[in-house]
Amino acid sequence: MTALSVRGVDKSFGSVRALDDMSFDVERGSTAALLGPSGCGKTTLLRIIAGFERPDHGSVSVDDELVTASGIWKRPERRSIGYVSQEGALFPHLTVAGNIEFALTRPERRDGTRVAELLALVSLDPSQLTRFPHQLSGGQQQRVALARAMARRPGLMLLDEPFAALDASLRADTRDLMAAALAAEKVTTVLVTHDQEEALSFADHVVVLRDGRVRQSGGPREVYERPVDAWTAAFVGDAVLVPARLQQGRAYTALGVVPFTGGEPDGEGTVLLRPEQLDLTQFTGAVGSEDAIIGDVVAFSYRGHDTLASVTLDDQPEVTVACRIPGNAGWLSTGTRVAIRVLGGAVVVPDGDG
Ligand code: ATP
Hints:
Blueprint: E1 2-13, E2 16-27, E3 31-35, H1 42-50, E4 57-62, E5 65-69, E6 72-73, E7 81-84, H2 96-101, H3 106-111, H4 113-121, H5 138-150, E8 156-160, H6 168-184, E9 188-193, H7 196-202, E10 205-210, E11 213-218, H8 220-225, H9 230-235, E12 240-247, E13 250-253, E14 256-261, E15 267-273, E16 278-282, E17 293-302, E18 306-313, E19 320-326, E20 337-342, E21 346-349
The chain binds adenosine-5'-triphosphate.
């Protein structure tokens, strides 16, 4: 069953075309991420789905019911939709209990069980009930905002960059916790984000947006491993894009001969490799290394769990590639001579912007 269907949605603000013929579906019970750079129309789209904004054209259906279309308009409060924004937007003058109760029916408020249930769902301790928003951490505030948004048991939850204002470690924890709470209640969720790691880890369906249009829609692995064009490849992760001569399933590149999948015809093209596919070893000029791809590390960025190194190739000094290696490779520094070995296959992507 389709929980959300967006069809041919256009929206302009003056001369700015925020959404341009936007269409996609989200299956019931699944988690979708709308992933795109700043200004690509993510928030506008979410506001149209929620009913805070009207599109110029197109339709929105929730649980197979048209809620926005030509001549059809269901008011936001009558749509079974929850919304959590970047700031959570808790009422500052109400306690945690007050904020959650605000969304409950009078009998539910009197009974108190639902508040306790919702608090447990977002893993907050009952001792927090009497606190005011300013007495909570950013992550706790977002969890209260989620509890409030879930109070009416919405069929669809919209999350507008709810982790963006949190620091890195809190962001991952809050994200996992909220994902678990939403999964426990089987709520279909649409997350808006410009953070590719967040989209790939949170969602089981990723819709990549650019300039108000859908670039690609698919599972996290699909968009990461088989991006539809070079722009998408570079937006969803670090990308090594190299020119290649394609011949009978093999790509002849500056990084050697690499198999590729996809059945593209023979000819010239561009292939994508991810930096984690480029294995580096310290080059010592060993005998038998005549065929090795050799280069110099020209820059590197240490990230704890891994290091991203830029390597310029001896044979083609105009080519510099990004290689990801474990963070504990203490031998690596600027100027280190390295040999590159390609792991796995490549994919062919259309050049440029696609
Ligand atoms: P961000 O990640 O920076 O929040 P976004 O992808 O959510 O960006 P939107 O906020 O939807 O993008 O904006 C899409 C485009 O529409 C932008 O060019 C923005 O300036 C414009 N826009 C959005 N809302 C309005 C408005 N109310 N009036 C005029 N222009 C608007």
